[in-house]
Amino acid sequence: MGRIALSALTDDLYRQSHSREQTLSMFLEERDPSPEGSKLDAFGRLMQEAGIVTRNIPERNIFSSKVEAFYRTNENKVLFPEFVARTLVHAMTAFPLYNYLVAAKTAIDSNVHKGSYLDFDDADNKKAVEMRRVTEAADLPTARLKLGETAITIYKYGRAIEASYEALRRMSIDLFVRHINRIGTMAADNKVAEILYVIKNGDGNNNAAPVINTSTLDGTATTAITRKAWVKFLLSFYPDKCNTVVANEDGLIQILEVLYPKFEVAGKMDELLANGLTVKTTLPQGLIDNTTLLYSPRIEKINNKEVVIGLDRGNTIEEIFEVGSTISEADTFIKNQTKMLTVSENSGFMKIFSDTSKILSIQ
Fold first, then answer.
1. How far is the C-alpha of 335 from the C-alpha of 160, rounded, in Å?
2. Rounded to the nearest 5°, which phi and psi values hold at 165?
3. Is the Cβ–Cβ distance between 179 and 76 less than 8 Å?
4. pTM higher than 0.70 for the full model?
5. What is the pLDDT of residues 242-298, one digit of tens each?
6. CA-closest candidate to residue 300, choices 186, 201, 160
7. Domain map of the chain by residue range?
8. Helix-strand-coil percent breakdown of the chain, rounded to 5?
9. Yes or no: is domain 211-316+355-361 CATH 1.10.260?
10. How many Å apart are CA 224 and CA 221, to the nearest integer?
11. 354 vs 343: CA distance, rounded Å
């Protein structure tokens, strides 16, 4: 498809992209694919053509444009809502906790969504998902992929910015981006709270994370995580793996004490190794190593007991976001020159698989 020139930009492009469940960036890139190795995508090239500089590069004596650069022409105005949306989304996805907890991000064109789930426990086919030997001409076992019974809840994440029209347009874009980034970070932290809730309680489709007591894994682990309980908890994810763990301060300290033995134990091992003892163990399945530890003060006790959350981050959480939810208010701001700019995104979270997250309760 032919490239969309700056002179051809109109508000109608947002409606066209929305109807295709695409962001404006996706819509433009589809029509003007970036050459391999290009540092700019289609939207970035239009920003460059408009002469809008978005960041300071003081070592080159280059400084960002003012926000008023988006008001020079009607075409430039069309770029502003998508610029705000891209800045906000980048800030949210760069937030470390969010980045490690969300496996996939899917666009929808409404504020209602029912996710698709593999049915592992169909009453008529208990072993539906097993790949097992079948006799000649016999039917293969069937795994059923069906819609969930409960719709995913969509929330609005972001902030409203109250500022005079004149003050905002005379602000440098570099400084404006810092404010949007701050809003994005706060919104991402709010998203994390919802993600942890969904992992723990499910998304409304009977898929809450099971709770495993440390004492069940190791009879001596009634007040603290032991090495035995920790290893057995990680192994309980097989054939998946627990590659991400989220804990509050107390839980994180306990895990670190398990992973890093007390000085006298480590010292004795160093002594043995120094005397010629060679020990090497390889665990190629990756079931009990390479685990990312994340801290969150939002991890709450269950029945007054400390807990940690474990998950296979590549198969647990999918974010559903409403296309266009980040741009409508910015678009209105440009046209009406109002004093309130709402920077937000409508999104919700669902579980991809119900058995890739578990909770370890210290009791």
1. 17
2. -55, -45
3. no
4. yes
5. 999 999 999 999 998 888 876 555 666 667 667 666 666 666 777 776 789 999 999
6. 201
7. 211-316+355-361
8. 40, 20, 40
9. no
10. 6
11. 33
